[in-house]
Q: What sequence folds into this?
C-alpha cells in the first residue's frame, strides 16, 4: 500500500514539472486499453449508426509549386553550445525548375542573415521575414542555367516558435542541444537533428518540401572529444588546431531536405559490413556490449528486403544511432537512422522485448520514403504504410505467419481505436487540418493493412514485382498514390481504380453482418452479407474480394473465391456435399473491417480447433462461453504460437484453475515465452491452496527474464523474506537498471550495505526508472533505525542541494525526506529523534527557499507547505 501511495503521488506531481512525454514515430494509439482490448477480443460492430469522421479542412492541400531545384548543398556548421546556436555557411547549386526565374525564396526559420551572395556577388537587397529569405538573382535564369547561392547565417532553433505536437513528432525545433553546458550528470551532451516534417529549415536554408532533392556535403566543426554522424560517407576529418575538428560528410545520391541529419556527441560504436556496405550501431557506452543485439538482425533484414523487392539496398552505409531526449520514436534519415534511447536494452531485457519491428520499419523507409518519397504530406502513407507493412513481412519471414498475423491484429486494433475515438479520414487526405496530424493510425496502420489486402488480391509474384516496378520507375523522385496504382497496373494488367478509390481515397472501412446457412437438400452454402461503413457515404458499398474457407473435422479445408459488391449481397456455393463444421467468409484474415457473424457456440469451438490461423483462434476464444471454453483449453495451452497459449490462460474460468495446477506449473517454468510463463505464475498465485514457495525459488535460480525474477522475488518477499539475501550476490553481477529495481525490491534488512545500494543508485537510476526505484527506496526505509534514517536523510539532502541534479530526482528525494521526517517525528520525545527532526526541517526549508527552479519549488511546497 505504501508503494502504491508514493507511486500515485509521483505520477500526480509530474504535471508540475513537465509538459510533455515521449511518443514513438512508430505509432502508438491514445485510446484507453480497455476499449482497445474490447475491439480486439470481440471485433463486433459498435455504434454503426454513427458516422465516425475526423475534422477536415475546407482548404485543398495542394503541393507547393516548384520554381527552382536545388542540385547540391555544401554546408559548413559550427555551434555555440552556451547559446544553443548554429553558425552556418550554406552554398547551394540551383537551377530553374522549368519556367525562367529572377529570384528565389528559401525557407530559413529564425535566422540572423549575415550575408547573401549569388555567383560570388554580394546581394544587398535580399528580404527576410524571419521565416523566408527572398533573394533577387540579378538576372533572369532559364531552364538548365545554373547559379550558386551562398548564405552566411546564425540559426537559433531554440528561439523558433513550437507548433502543437503530433502523435509521432513532439517538437518542430529541427535541431536540439542536449545538456549543452554539461550540467546534468544524468545526461551526455549531444546535438542532433529531426527534420520531418519541414523542420530542417530551422538550421539550414533550403526549399523545405518533400518534392525537393539534392546531394550534399556537410562539414561539422565540433570539439575534438565528440564524434559526429551525418548522411553518406565520412570523407575527411581534419584537426583545426584550436580544440576543434572538422568532419566532412558527403551524400552523393539525392534525397529530400527532411532526411538531412547530423548528430554530435560521445557514443560507443560497433561496426561490421554487409555486402561491402558499412554498418554502424551507435549507442550509449554502457550498452556497448549489446549494440548489435539492440539492432538485432540488421544484416539479415537488409538481405531479406533487398531480395523480397528485388532491389538492392541503394545507399552507401547503414548507421543506427541512439540519442537522448528524442522527440520521436525513430527517424529514417538516409543512411543514418535516429532512435530514442528507449530502444537501448541489455541482453536479458531483449529476451522479453526485442526491437525487430521498429528496426525493420525504419529500414524499409530507405526504399519507401528515402529512395521514392511522398510528394506531399497528404500522401504520407506512401512512406509510412510501406514501413508499417515491412514489420509484417519481416515477422512472417523470420518467425512465421502466426507472429505476423498477430502483429496484423494489433495494427488493426490501433486503426479501429483511432476511428472510434478520433474519427476516420481518407488515407490520401488532401483536406487534413494539420500536416503533423497525418502521422496517425491511418497513414501507418491502415496503409499497411490495405497493402496486405492488395498483396492477397494480386498474388505475391505480381505484388512484389509491382513494388519493384514502382521503385525502378520513380527512383529519386517524389510521388503520389496514382503512381503506385499505375505501377501495379503496369505489372498485373488489372484495372485497380476501384481498389485505390475505396481504400486510398475513400473513408473508413466496412462493418459486415454475415449470416451463414447450409441447405442439406440442395447441398449448397448461402452467405448473406450486409455492410455498413464508417464512410461519409453509407450508400456506397465496398467491393470486397475474399477467399472463403469451409472447415471439416478430419477432412481437408475447402476454398472458394467470393466477392461482395452491394450493400446487401448473397454468395451461393453449390455442390457442397457435407455441411461444414464452420465457415469463414474471410478465410485468410486479410479484410480490413469488423464482422458480426451468426455462429453458434459449437461453431466457434470448431473454429478454434480447426482453423490454423491465430486471428480465428483468438476471435473464437473471445466468444466462447464457460461450457465451451473447457473443450478447447488443453488444445489452447499446447498451441504452437505463444499468444494462443497466453489467451487461453486468460480464458480459463477462475473456478476451474485448480484443475490445471500441474500444467500451469509446467508453463511457468518451461514455456519458451516470458509472457506465458509470467501469466501462468500469476494465475497460480490466485489459487487459494497453492503454495508458490518452491516455484518461486526455482525461478530465482534458473530464470534470466527480469519479469519472472521480479515476480518470484516479490513472492518470496511476502512469504519467505529471509531467503532473499542468498540470491542477491549472484544477481548483483548484472548491473542493468531493471536488475537494480529487482534488487531494490529484495533488500529488506537494515544493513549499511543495503543503504549504500540505495544511496548509490539514487544518483544514477535513469529517468524512466526513477518512479519505481524511489518507491522501493521509500518502502525500504519504512521502520528502519534512526541511524539509517539519518544517513539516508543526509544523502538525500545532498542530492537535492546539487544544482546540476535532475529535477525529477530532486522531487522524488524530497518526497522520501518527507516520509523520513514523519517516521522521525513519530518516535516521540526521544532526544536524538527530536534533534534530527528539527535539523531536517530547517535544512529542507533552506533548500526550498534557495531553489531557483520555480516549478520545482511549487512541487516541493506540495510536500512541505510553507508554515
A:
Amino acid at each position: 500500500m505504501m508503494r502504491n501511495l508514493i507511486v500515485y503521488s509521483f505520477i500526480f506531481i509530474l504535471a508540475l514539472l513537465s509538459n510533455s512525454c515521449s511518443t514513438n514515430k512508430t505509432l502508438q494509439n491514445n485510446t484507453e486499453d480497455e476499449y482497445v482490448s474490447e475491439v480486439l477480443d470481440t471485433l463486433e460492430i459498435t455504434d454503426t449508426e454513427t458516422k465516425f469522421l475526423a475534422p477536415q479542412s475546407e482548404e485543398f492541400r495542394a503541393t507547393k509549386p516548384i520554381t527552382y531545384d536545388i542540385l547540391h548543398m555544401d554546408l559548413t556548421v559550427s555551434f555555440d553550445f552556451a547559446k544553443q546556436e548554429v553558425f552556418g555557411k550554406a552554398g547551394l547549386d540551383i537551377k530553374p525548375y522549368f519556367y525562367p526565374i529572377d529570384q528565389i525564396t528559401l525557407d530559413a526559420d529564425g535566422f540572423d542573415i549575415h550575408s547573401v551572395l549569388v555567383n560570388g556577388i554580394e546581394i544587398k537587397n535580399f528580404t527576410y521575414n524571419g521565416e523566408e529569405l527572398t533573394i533577387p538573382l540579378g538576372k533572369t535564369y532559364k531552364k538548365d542555367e545554373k547559379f550558386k547561392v551562398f548564405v552566411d547565417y546564425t540559426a537559433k532553433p531554440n528561439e523558433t516558435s513550437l507548433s502543437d505536437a503530433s502523435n509521432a513528432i513532439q517538437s518542430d525545433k529541427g535541431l536540439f542541444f542536449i545538456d549543452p553546458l554539461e550540467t546534468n550528470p544524468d545526461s551526455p551532451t549531444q546535438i542532433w537533428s529531426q527534420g520531418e516534417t519541414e523542420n530542417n529549415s530551422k538550421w539550414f536554408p533550403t526549399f523545405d518540401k518533400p518534392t525537393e532533392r539534392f546531394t550534399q556535403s556537410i562539414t561539422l566543426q565540433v570539439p575534438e572529444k565528440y564524434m559526429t554522424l551525418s548522411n553518406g560517407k565520412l570523407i575527411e576529418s581534419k584537426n583545426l588546431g584550436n580544440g576543434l575538428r572538422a568532419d566532412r560528410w558527403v551524400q552523393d545520391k539525392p534525397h529530400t531536405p527532411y532526411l538531412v541529419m547530423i548528430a554530435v556527441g560521445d557514443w560507443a560504436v560497433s561496426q561490421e559490413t554487409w555486402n561491402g556496405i558499412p554498418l554502424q550501431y551507435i549507442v550509449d557506452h554502457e550498452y556497448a556490449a549489446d549494440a548489435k543485439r539492440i539492432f538485432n538482425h540488421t544484416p539479415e533484414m537488409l538481405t531479406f528486403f533487398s531480395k523480397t523487392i528485388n532491389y538492392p539496398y541503394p545507399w552507401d552505409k547503414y548507421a543506427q544511432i541512439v540519442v537522448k531526449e528524442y522527440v520521436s520514436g525513430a527517424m529514417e534519415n538516409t543512411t543514418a537512422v535516429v532512435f530514442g534511447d528507449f530502444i537501448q536494452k541489455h541482453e536479458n531485457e531483449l529476451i522479453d522485448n526485442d526491437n525487430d519491428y521498429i528496426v525493420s520499419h525504419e529500414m524499409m523507409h530507405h526504399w519507401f520514403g528515402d529512395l521514392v518519397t511522398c510528394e506531399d504530406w497528404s500522401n504520407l502513407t506512401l512512406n509510412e504504410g510501406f514501413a508499417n507493412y515491412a514489420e509484417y513481412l519481416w515477422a512472417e519471414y523470420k518467425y512465421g505467419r502466426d507472429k505476423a498475423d498477430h502483429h496484423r491484429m494489433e495494427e488493426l486494433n490501433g486503426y479501429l481505436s483511432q476511428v472510434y475515438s478520433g474519427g476516420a479520414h481518407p488515407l490520401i487526405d488532401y483536406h487534413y487540418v494539420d500536416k503533423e496530424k497525418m502521422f496517425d493510425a491511418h497513414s501507418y496502420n491502415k496503409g499497411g493493412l490495405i497493402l496486405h489486402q492488395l498483396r492477397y488480391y494480386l498474388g505475391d509474384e505480381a505484388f512484389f514485382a509491382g513494388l519493384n516496378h514502382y521503385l525502378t520507375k520513380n527512383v529519386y523522385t517524389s510521388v503520389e498514390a496514382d503512381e503506385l496504382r499505375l505501377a501495379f497496373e503496369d505489372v498485373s494488367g488489372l484495372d485497380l481504380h476501384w481498389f485505390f478509390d475505396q481504400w486510398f481515397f475513400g473513408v473508413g472501412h466496412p462493418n459486415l453482418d454475415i449470416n451463414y446457412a447450409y441447405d442439406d437438400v440442395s447441398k449448397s452454402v448461402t452467405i448473406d452479407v450486409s455492410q455498413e461503413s464508417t464512410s461519409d457515404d453509407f450508400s456506397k458499398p465496398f467491393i470486397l474480394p475474399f477467399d472463403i474457407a469451409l472447415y471439416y473435422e478430419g477432412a481437408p479445408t475447402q476454398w472458394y473465391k467470393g466477392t461482395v459488391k452491394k450493400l446487401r449481397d448473397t454468395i451461393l456455393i453449390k455442390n457442397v456435399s457435407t455441411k461444414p463444421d464452420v465457415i469463414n467468409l474471410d478465410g485468410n484474415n486479410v479484410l480490413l473491417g469488423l464482422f458480426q457473424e451468426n455462429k453458434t457456440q459449437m461453431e466457434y469451438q470448431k473454429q478454434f480447433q480447426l482453423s490454423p490461423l491465430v486471428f480465428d483462434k483468438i476471435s473464437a476464444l473471445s466468444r466462447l462461453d464457460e461450457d465451451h471454453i473447457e473443450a478447447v483449453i488443453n488444445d489452447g495451452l499446447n498451441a504452437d504460437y505463444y499468444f494462443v497459449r497466453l489467451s487461453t490462460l486468460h480464458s480459463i474460468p477462475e473456478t476451474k484453475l485448480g484443475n490445471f495446477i500441474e500444467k500451469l506449473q509446467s508453463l511457468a517454468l518451461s514455456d519458451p515465452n516470458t509472457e506465458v510463463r509470467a501469466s501462468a505464475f500469476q494465475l497460480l498465485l490466485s489459487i487459494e491452496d497453492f503454495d508458490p514457495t518452491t516455484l518461486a525459488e526455482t525461478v530465482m535460480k534458473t530464470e534470466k527474464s527480469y519479469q519472472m525474477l521480479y515476480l518470484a522475488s516479490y513472492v518470496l518477499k511476502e512469504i519467505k523474506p529471509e531467503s532473499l539475501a542468498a540470491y542477491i550476490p549472484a544477481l548483483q553481477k548484472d548491473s542493468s537498471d531493471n536488475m537494480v529495481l529487482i534488487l531494490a525490491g529484495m533488500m529488506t534488512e537494515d544493513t549499511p550495505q543495503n543503504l549504500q545500494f540505495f544511496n548509490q543508485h539514487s544518483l544514477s537510476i535513469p529517468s524512466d526508472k526513477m518512479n519505481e526505484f524511489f518507491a522501493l527506496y521509500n518502502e525500504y526505509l519504512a521502520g528502519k533505525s534512526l541511524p539509517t534514517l539519518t544517513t539516508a536523510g543526509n544523502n538525500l539532502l545532498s542530492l537535492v542541494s546539487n544544482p546540476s541534479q535532475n529535477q525529477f530526482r530532486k522531487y522524488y528525494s524530497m518526497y522520501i525526506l518527507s516520509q523520513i521526517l514523519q517516521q522521525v517525528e513519530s518516535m516521540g520525545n526521544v532526544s536524538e529523534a527530536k534533534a534530527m527532526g528539527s535539523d531536517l526541517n530547517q535544512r529542507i526549508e533552506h533548500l526550498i527557499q534557495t531553489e531557483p527552479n520555480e516549478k520545482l519549488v511549487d512541487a516541493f511546497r506540495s510536500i512541505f507547505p510553507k508554515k
Remarks:
- The chain has 29 helices and 29 strands.
- Residues 1-24, 26-50 have pLDDT under 50 and may be disordered.
- Residues 401-422 form the longest helix (22 residues).
